[in-house]
Amino acid sequence: MTAPRLMRGLMAAVIALPLALLGACGGDDNSSSDGKTELTFFWWGGEARAKLTEQALALYTQKHPDVTFKTTWQANQGYFDKLATLTAGSDAPDIFQIDDNYLAEYATRNVTLDLTSYKDSGKVDVSKFPEGLWKYGVVDNKLAGLAMGENTQGLVFNKTKLEAAKQELPKTGISWADFITWAQKAGAATKIPGTQDPSADYKAFWVWLRQNGKDLYNGNQLAFTKDDVQKWFELWKGARDTKATPTADVIHEGNATDITKQLVVTNKALTSWVWANQMPDIQKNTKDELAVVAYPGDPSAQWARASMYFSVYRGSKDKDKAVDVINFLANDPEAAKILGTDRGLPSNLDNRTAVAATVTDPAMKASIALEDELVKKFGPAPSVPPKGHSTVKSELIKAAEAAQFGTATPDKAAEQFFAAAQAAVAG
Amino acid sequence: MAVSTRPPAHRPQSGPAASQRRGRPARHQDDGRAGYVFLSPWLLGLAAVTAIPMLLSLYLSFTNYDVLSSFSEADWVGLDNYRKMFTDDPAFWHAVRVTLVFALIGTPLKLGAALGVAMLLNRSFRGAGLFRGLFYLPSLLGGSVAVAMIWRSIFDRSGAFNAFLSWFGIEGKAWVNDPSTALGTLILLAVWQFGAPMVIFLAGLKQVPNELYEAAEVDGASSVRKFLSVTLPMLSPVIFFNLVLETIHGFQGFTSAFVLSGGTGGPVDSTLMYTLQLYLKGFANFEMGYASAMAWVFLITIGLVTVVLFRTGRFWVHYSDGDD
Fold first, then answer.
1. Reported ipTM exceeds the 0.85 cut
2. Does the beta-carbon distance from B267 to A405 stay under 8 Å?
3. Neighboring chain B residues of A4 at a CB cutoff of 8 Å
4. Which first-to-last residue range defines the signal peptide (chain A) (predicted)?
5. Long-range contacts of A350-359 (CB under 8 A, 24+ apart)
6. For B58-177, where are the E strands, in sequence order?
7. Pairing of strands A95-98, A37-44
8. N or C: lower Cβ tally within 10 Å for chain A?
9. Of the candidates A276, A191, A292, A178, which has an alpha carbon nearest to the alpha carbon of residue A235?
10. Scanning every residue of chain A, which has its alpha carbon at the shortest distance from the alpha carbon of B78?
11. Which domains does chain A have, with CATH numbers?
């Protein structure tokens, strides 16, 4: 008992020393002696998103001259490392972008400000949001983030190549078995494998589970069995055996790289499994015309997913102002016009209608059309993935690839994934 | 954070006359203090960015710290992290195996390549300097992300390496994307960066006295014999130096594995190096306490390996002091 206490004392001294030194150097830079507030703002994305976000924030400053912003942004790679490091140093940005891969991790550790009371008092207005969408930000009964856009699962295919080979195009509602047969046939006709093998893709697995009356999670537990995983792996083993998919090394390329190197872009498969709002990004990287439909099976298994959220840091010095900013970005019509569909379809339905009417990018139009078509069919959204989700995702990739490369049978791979996933959500 | 240069209280008492009277010893003491003053930026840096974080990580290795919470919320778990690592974490042992394969195969190959090329370049011919520069280049670029990306594209399915193979009618595969060959391409990348040890070997070769070779020639030694009996023994301190340095490097392999696998250690964990697994534990699984424990085990292991190398060095490293 005494050893830890002694260590803690020592550590406290060790930690306090540099902090004191640092404290002596810098003043309190957030001081509002002149009534001005500077809020820090951090997101991931590309150059285009940065421009739009800066513009929307400038508009806020124009309307509230006492609030200015210090913005930082970077590519997705490394974003969450940096956010975690900043948080560890109690130096997280006042406002940051987050997605459902990590929302629960941050919310359960009380990093994010609970927005429930702001929602109840109307300071955060979700009255124009689809209900399932804002609720997708609730973790442990706390509203941990405000959805900044909506998207859903989308199967993107190469329309140009399929039409050139006089092949049928996939349609929403096609069964899994028919889809795989189609992929095999289209692959034979075009000499490009018909589909990326999505057995390592958690969102495809998730939709498939929901179509089978299961789910990925139920609260903090897995809502599927080892047998379900095995069936899933076997389904795709069958597809690989009929050459409906590329070989394992190529499949891995699609699993490992970012969205702009998806196999449908690099012409190593005719279809890829993505989020529908990624259409413009994918389309930009290929000359062929792409199109998008729902994943195979009953489309009611898909749901309106919050593509990303803005959260407020619980340790922020100006929580109320930060909350007002994210409310502004989500609901102000002018801000919505600036932000467009960059983070998904606007959450506020009034804004969505206004923005959708002005969209000219055909890829984005296709994505909106899919969403419009599915919105009537959407099933209820699952709750946001629990803590450990990011590990579950990487364990699925590992196990699925073991099955793809033949280093494990679907049975063994399923067993391995199930055990690892269980440990991840329990831990 | 101002650092006072010298306690001013001393000054009035010791005027020029006084210091002269006390003579040299006092001066020496003075110089020592000034030395520390000049060193202080470095000492502060050492404390702030090396010593304190290290102690902190030692403390964290006994806790269940998760990165996102504050330090004070981390619970003391004693040796649990270490126990789990050795008895209940197959991924840990897998990472150890991958790293050992990488270091034990990569390091000798790299040293061999470095010595071989150094011997080729240790002659005077036109453009020798240019060649030395060219061979050194990869190790300058080697640690960088860019080179790993290029490596990725070379060993891709449609990459240059397969184009080369296709001349001989061999159909290649995506070498970096196949669990049976991914680690091999990483080792190859490490071997290719032999420039640094090569330059040191070159310097060592220049030091070998020519008389020894001449004497060996008079005795009718073959070139193999000359290499074994003259070059290697004379070079052994340099070989030893390179061996220690490159072994440590080998254990630390991270960047190339990180970039080539997209930060996952895939496909199927085939490139899951120890440092990569440590990073994933800390930042992807939010087990910073565990990752800290891994870091300390790593530090101690490298320390032990170095000690063992030094011990064995006694038997094969020959230092010629010029008078023997």
1. no
2. yes
3. 62, 76, 78
4. 1-23
5. A350/A128, A351/A128
6. none
7. parallel
8. N
9. A178
10. A4
11. 3-149+306-363 (3.40.190.10), 153-302+388-426 (3.40.190.10)
